[in-house]
């Protein structure tokens, strides 16, 4: 009879016990009152093309644990491409138990994540952090939430431009010092490459959902912000629908696709394309022109995919505007930050870890190794920084013409619809006109009728 | 739980003890069901209830709606009905289920089972093992293998090249065909095994007698064998249908639901809307539709088959 | 013919409630009847089988060839140089053994809980007449049909509410619950085939129902339980979507999720390593499949003996 009871109860209780046990051991904070074993959990992205942050955090972890006995920094690298990284991060943030204490955040995620209650305001800690003075106003703004509090410290910023392979250009009879002034110049060069060096992909512009924000920023917006239109009217607080620029941008993508000037669809729809551009397609001389970000040389200077010849091989030029209109060139800037999770057991210690990670020495390390436009004035002014990488000068020169993404909580959803529009055009599922119309309807649904306005 | 420690002696004597004892007794007898029922309620009924409820909110993965979702009634469903992408996805789901499960897996599975009966022993063992291995493999491994098969530099195109046929980027040009064939590849073993077992249960005397009476092979199959294994056929149709309705990994790895939404079945669309585009409420509504679809299939099956539950 | 009697036919045979007893005898008879015409059709059938077999083996071939190729690509080809490097490079705790260990914990946990719960549940369902038994079994059958593992969106939301995210135990319980309807169904059918007479003898000796279950019924249906166990284990081992959405930290990820990271993170560089990992990940379930073939043989034997 006892067997009966034991078996029944134990099987029923097994469920609860299992839950309880593992619940405890997986607990992220670990700060259960005892001062002996406190943990800071850090969530960030790591891939074979983006290893510099991992190296930085490993270094900072050692320093921090040395300086704060009893504290452990638990690094949680998320090995995923950018879109999957965002998904994973959002899933982790969904529950206080699994939310990280320190989060590597893209600028455009700060506002929505702050509004969602995932991030903790840092104002009190920043006020006492003497290094904060090194961060200029424009850089600080990247961490602002809708409520005016600061939710992140910038790790650096970036610009975007046009890379081209000089060796391929020489074969195609194109100038070594190439300076396209309009979109047509870009297309002409691509056509020439296609005709003269047929084995090479003439040009890459990201244009599918698979590359996520890369498609919006390195691809679509680099084009759109060179037209007379824009995405968002910041003064009126309205999203713009029915703009000619939007349609023209899609038409440009369609031209690339129709004339086979861009990677085949299988590559264009590959999540891994950004990695492959930097680790394979450019180094192996299989791609002539790439619209991409300023961080790319970071992966060529060291690491598994080091490519010392890049300095002689790659040329860089500014992204032209559509018809050469003022200011003659355009660029987009974003950047990433370190933020404190709203559920951090000890936000102050989490901040201290961030402060250590972004002190002058570590910021210098990250800015040089990952080809960042330095966030801190002291790093930017350091002669060793300027001379570290020959591309810095060029990409810094784009700052005067650069643009920022609309800083609104709903940008992420707008961006998704941009990607849908771009992909539907390059896959031939919609004409630029249809895709633009779908976009207009979709964003109106997202933000509401009152928050959109017709382009003038 | 304490009462469970006292299973009365009469416990072992079903149906004879009178009055209130009978209630206690039936409770005691029921008690071994408790762990299973608890698990089913929490983790099977739980998601279903949550799915119905969540689909009525505008919950989001990030932004203000993540902190404070509103109850929006049937807005998500209204949006779905308005959205041509949803209807396309629904059609793709039905195409996927009908083509790969009802037609592909079942017919090929039956053909294999019949061939197995007729073929040489060693051949039978080797081929059946190969077919079953593709079924036993973890689904993600199977998905990679088929991705590599259909990719434009992949095996299929290389083989076509031997015959002078120029290949294509199958995953882009014909994504649905690729995932349908992939699901046939992966799932046929199950049907084959079910039908092999069923065919073995058909007494050979009957078909032999029919043969002596001059019935052709096809007649013997369609008039005698099929009616005799009818139950196995319908059970199998149902299990493969529902298995296929839930396929996510295979499609996600091979095509990501693309290009565009050309191969986004409902599970893929739900994932995309909820976890990529942050619209959890909307994605949950799609999941609910998938659930209802599964439920409809199940009801049709149970009604048609009237499985004996005793 | 042993290769043709893996788990599913047993399951279904059991579902139909009529286990096959005299199969082997029939096969022997079939084999003896071979006229010349039948021999021709036998050759034709074998040829068609070869063609289908080749079609099935080609996608598998890529995994094997790529795993031993020092320069594997997405294309199937004979290795330019045969190497074990793809294996040796991934033979470490973080890349391979920890994910496999996690898969083992998840699959074992799921299979143990599922089997325990379904044996317990099957007993009253199989042995007692109860008014609500029929509706209960129909509900279970209905549950078998629902594509729960495909609707991870509400499951994720539910796990947020339960506070069970990134929790191996929670994932195990969910997988167990989704496997339960099928497992209860199978276990009950196996149990139905065990005569009550044996237990009644035990009852006379004063044993309780539970004692009878564990001392008499369970030992008799051990092969059936093993089939259920392996069935559930294999499903949990191969599941990707559930741990992909519910588990986050690298330290608790099973092989199914770890392999996806391979593909997404290292680009085209490491098809060889991906294939090598795939093999290491697949071998355990392939081995279990061989095991189940042997077990199902004996389960038929048992069914036959009982039916007398």
From TrEMBL, chain A:
The keyword Protein biosynthesis does not apply. It comes from the Bacteria. PROSITE patterns: PROKAR_LIPOPROTEIN (PS51257). SUPFAM superfamilies: Periplasmic binding protein-like II. The lineage of its organism: Bacteria, Bacillati, Actinomycetota, Actinomycetes, Micrococcales. Keywords: Signal. Pfam families: SBP_bac_1. Residues 1-22 form the signal peptide. This is N-Acetyl-D-glucosamine ABC transport system, sugar-binding protein.
From TrEMBL, chain C:
Gene3D superfamilies: MetI-like. The chain crosses the membrane at residues 43-68, 100-123, 135-162, 168-186, 225-249, 269-292. Residues 1-36 are annotated as: Disordered. It is a multi-pass membrane protein. Residues 100-292 form the ABC transmembrane type-1 domain. Its main location: membrane. It is found in: Cell membrane. This is Putative integral membrane transport protein. The lineage of its organism: Bacteria, Bacillati, Actinomycetota, Actinomycetes, Micrococcales.
